[in-house]
Design brief:
3-stranded parallel beta sheet; mainly alpha; two-stranded parallel ribbon; 12 helices; 5 strands; 282 residues
């Protein structure tokens, strides 16, 4: 469960699950650079864990730059090359103590040569705060011990300005668990509460659609939960989410939301009557 508002802790406790509280002052760390080099998928022969991870790092860097930044082709190429350099070196001796962290990306960007050097330096300046500054929480190797069948990532205490980035990183972390569970023949149910938060930003929306599709292909069951229908449906990516959803479960809806849903999902007036003035939980 990804829980941005800290609303699941009692449910998780009653079900004897595990709550992982994430904040900038937490001693629990999630490494955004962590990679599983040996992931395999018989249904997707072309899956390349390094290429996939590099795509994620590009999305993460765009979020770090902020202000709905959109990296150009040259910036993306520089980040992609830096990532591949890091992961190919790691692949030569992939031991846990050498797992790359953001600091490695920071130095790799600063050490680019030729015409890439200036671009790399500019990108490294934006990363500096996440490596040496107040947001260095993200510059650590993962130390999470996930030991329960039910796990909740509680983000209530995370700085609000970093919540989108943190949700993106946690989705990537869960993706690693989805892959590991698939190898054991297990399905993984992934609940993302306040899902509209990820769809309000074009960068997190695009990545969420990609991960939504990938979860399903690898034995995951992604579930987006929200009560902000208007915010959810304002995303250009929502069509892709609906197309990759086997069912939609609705509770009582306000009048404005009912009309939007009727148009978006082609719901009849009779069907809408079930979510009009209905009781809690119906």
């Amino acid at each position: 469960i990804i829980d941005p508002e800290g609303e699941y802790k009692w449910l998780v406790k009653l079900l004897k699950g595990q709550t992982i509280r994430i904040s900038l002052s937490s001693m629990i760390h999630i490494n955004p650079m962590e990679i599983d080099l040996f992931a395999q998928n018989d249904e997707d022969k072309e899956y390349d864990p390094i290429a996939s991870k590099c795509n994620f790092i590009v999305s993460m860097c765009e979020l770090i730059l902020g202000n709905n930044a959109h990296l150009g082709k040259k910036e993306i190429a520089v980040i992609d090359e830096a990532c591949k350099n890091i992961y190919y070196r790691f692949a030569e001796n992939p031991v846990p103590e050498k797992m790359p962290i953001l600091q490695d990306l920071y130095h790799e960007l600063r050490n680019m040569r030729g015409e890439k050097k200036l671009i790399g330096m500019d990108l490294s300046i934006a990363l500096g705060r996440y490596v040496n500054g107040s947001l260095s929480y993200f510059n650590h190797r993962s130390n999470i011990d996930i030991n329960s069948r039910l796990v909740c990532f509680d983000l209530k205490e995370m700085d609000a300005n970093q919540r989108d980035l943190t949700m993106l990183i946690i989705q990537e972390t869960i993706w690693d668990r989805v892959k590991a569970n698939r190898e054991k023949g297990r399905f993984t149910w992934v609940d993302i509460d306040e899902f509209h938060l990820l769809l309000r930003n074009p960068l997190t929306a695009a990545y969420s659609v990609e991960i939504y599709k990938r979860f399903r292909k690898w034995g995951g069951i992604p579930t987006g939960i929200t009560q902000n229908i208007k915010d959810l449906l304002s995303s250009r990516e929502i069509e892709n989410i609906f197309e990759n959803s086997d069912f939609i479960y609705m509770l009582n809806q306000a009048s404005g939301d009912r009309q939007i849903l009727a148009k978006q999902l082609n719901i009849s007036p009779t069907q809408l009557s079930y979510v009009t003035n209905s009781n809690e939980g119906e």
